[in-house]
Structure formats: C-alpha cells, structure tokens
Amino acid sequence: HTHRQGLEAKLGRKLTPAEVSHHLDEDKANNQGANLAIETRGAHTTRHNQTRQLGRLRAALRMIRERTKLY
C-alpha cells in the first residue's frame, strides 16, 4: 500500500487502524505526498458515497437536458 506508506512518511508516524489515506485528486496512481490526506474511515466512506451520488445526479441531469431539447 504505497499510498499509506507515503502518507505515513509525510506525517512522520504510522496511521492508526481508524485512519485511511485519501487521494485528493481521486487518482489512485498519484501517491505524491501533496495528493494524500488523512481521513477517518467513516469520513472517507461518506466522501466517496457523496461523490458517487453527485455523479449519478449529474448523469441524470444530462439525460433530462438531452430529452427536453427543443429542435
């Protein structure tokens, strides 16, 4: 888990079992220290659930706009 190791190096300590490493830009391959943030498991889960929900809402809005275009 390179991202955990990178964040631990940045923090100068090990992450606790309740802490997770979050990729700020959502790119799991970008393990640079500036792209990693510490979060609780609960906050991390909430963040990702909200992001998924927002994506679904945006897709629904695009579909509605396409269906209601005036020609």
Could you explain the architecture of this structure?
This protein has 71 residues and is an alpha+beta fold. 52% of the residues lie in helices and 14% in strands. The chain contains two helices and two strands; from the N terminus they run αββα. A two-stranded antiparallel sheet has the order 1-2. The longest helix is centred in the last third of the chain and has 27 residues. The chain starts with a helix and ends with a helix. The mean pLDDT is 88.
How many beta-strand segments? 2
How would a textbook summarize the main sheet?
2 strands, antiparallel
From the N-terminal CA to the C-terminal CA, the straight-line distance is 52 Å
Order of helices and strands: HEEH
Point out poorly predicted stretches. none
Radius of gyration: 17 Å
Give the averaged pLDDT, no decimals. Answer: 88
Percent of residues in beta strands: 5-15%
Count of DSSP H/I helices: 2
Tell the overall outline: elongated
The oligomerization state is single chain
Biggest sheet: strands side by side, in what order? 1-2
SS-based class: alpha+beta
The level of helicity is 40-55%
